[in-house]
Structures are given as C-alpha cells and as structure tokens.
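Example 9 (inverse folding). The structure is encoded as follows.
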C-alpha cells in the first residue's frame, strides 16, 4: 500500500494504491469523496478514516469488482445510473461472466472446482450497501470545492468520470487510459466508444481541462490522449490483433491489440472481434 503525499498529485488529493488499482480521496473543506473502493484487499473504510475525519461520500467510477469490491464496508455508494447494480444477469458485466461460466461448465464439468474463485475474483460482493444513482452533470459539493459527474460510457454502460473545475483535472476511472478493456461491455462497438471519446474530449477541452488520471496506470495523461486513443480504437479490426482466443459462451473471438504511439508511448485494448462491426 502506498500513499502519495497530498501535494504530489494535486492539493487535497490522496492516491490510495490497492494492488493493481488506485482509489482517490478528494477532500474539500467540509466533505470528501472516495472515488472507488478497490479490490477489498484491506478494509478501505478503516484506512480512509485514518486519512480524513470529514464526512465521506463514496462514489464508484463503474461497477467492476476491482473498483467496487470494498463497497460492502459502506452504507451508501453513489454510481452512474446505467451501472446501478442488480447483482443479476441484467447487469452487462455479470451477464458476460455468467455466459462464459455456463458455457465452460457445459463443456468442462470439472471446471466446477474453480467456481469459488470465479465468485471471489470476478464478482462484486453484495453486502447491504444502498446504491444511489448519479446523473451526468450532478454536482458534489465538498465545501470550497465542487466535483462534477460526467458520463463516459464504453468500458461499462454507466462509466462516469469526476471533473474538478478548480484544478481543471479529471478522474477517469477505467473510461480512458492506456489500456481499455472493451470486452467487458460486449454490446458496445469500438466505433461507438470512439464517438464517445471524441465527444467527451471536445467538451472537456472547451471547458479548459488539461489533464486526467485513470485508475490503473501510474501516469497522468494530457487530455489529447483520449482523443488519440479514440482514433486508434476506431481503426481496430480483428486482423490487427496480435492474439485471438475463442472463449466459450461468446459469439466472437477475444482480440488483444497494442500499438506504440510517438506522442503517448502506447495504446492497448482487449475486445471481441464483433465489436469492430459498424
Ligand atoms: Zn473496469
Ligand atoms: Zn479497473
């Protein structure tokens, strides 16, 4: 576990490193936002209580287990309205896992043995948490600091980002980074993601935002990254993948692609072949 000094990222912001994912504690004068609750490798609620005694507002960037597994420690969690969990196969991500697991068990009944691990690693813990939907444009008042919710769908249907208008800084979760796993939202085409990326970039650029931070990578990006990544992903085809794998329960192959970028070092993605269809 590693904690940045407060001045290292931005004044009043602590990055909490949680295995492969970062949570952000963003403090105002009166209240603080915890953006994501992580893998639940440690008790995030206890940990954060040592960092701040301000009233805590817990927000998920999206409903994947690496960002939401610590939710069960909290009474209330805010999340993008299209990622509001039902903990059934109505949730896009849970349906994908269920499709793959069901088809795999049909083909290989002995795979039943790994089911407890699937539950532990791939599913988000339910608990008694109340989920509160956030809408695009909602403002979170922290006292002397306001964060604005901005939708950036693609990685999941309800992925949200938080804008900090005073610092012109964006917390992007998994919505945009060096490696976007598009396969987690199989019904979203790469072209639709690219259109969202272009729209998002234009809007935040017009508002004067300059930098953003994803949840997994140790780099702060210039916002031009999201524009250039969108252009790259829009040109992906199944043929451009360096690896293609058949996966039981899914209608097309899982594709892995990567390309160096002169300006941004690297772009990578994992997607289903059918997501390249227009
Ligand atoms: Zn994710
Ligand atoms: Zn993630």
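The amino acid assigned to each position is listed next.
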């Amino acid at each position: 576990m590693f904690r940045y000094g407060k001045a290292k990222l931005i004044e009043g912001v602590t990055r909490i490193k949680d295995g492969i994912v970062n949570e952000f504690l963003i403090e105002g004068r009166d209240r603080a936002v915890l953006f994501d609750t992580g893998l639940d490798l440690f008790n995030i609620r206890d940990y954060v209580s040592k960092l701040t005694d301000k009233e805590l507002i817990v927000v998920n960037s999206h409903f994947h287990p690496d960002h939401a597994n610590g939710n069960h420690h909290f009474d209330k969690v805010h999340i993008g309205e299209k990622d509001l969990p039902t903990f059934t196969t109505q949730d896009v991500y849970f349906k994908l896992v269920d499709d793959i697991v069901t088809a795999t068990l049909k083909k290989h009944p002995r795979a039943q043995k790994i089911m407890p691990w699937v539950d532990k690693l791939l599913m988000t813990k339910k608990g008694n948490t109340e989920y509160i939907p956030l809408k695009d444009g909602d403002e979170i008042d922290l006292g002397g600091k306001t964060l604005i919710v901005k939708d950036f769908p693609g990685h999941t249907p309800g992925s949200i980002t938080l804008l900090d208008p005073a610092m012109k800084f964006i917390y992007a979760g998994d919505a945009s980074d060096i490696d976007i796993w598009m396969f987690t939202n199989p019904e979203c085409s790469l072209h639709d993601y690219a259109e969202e990326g272009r729209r998002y970039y234009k809007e935040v650029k017009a508002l004067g935002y300059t930098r953003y931070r994803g949840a997994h990578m140790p780099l702060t990006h210039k916002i031009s990254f999201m524009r250039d990544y969108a252009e790259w992903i829009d040109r992906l085809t199944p043929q451009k993948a360096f690896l293609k794998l058949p996966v039981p329960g899914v209608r097309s192959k899982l594709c892995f692609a990567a390309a160096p970028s002169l300006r941004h070092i690297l772009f990578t993605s994992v997607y289903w072949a059918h997501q390249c269809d227009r």
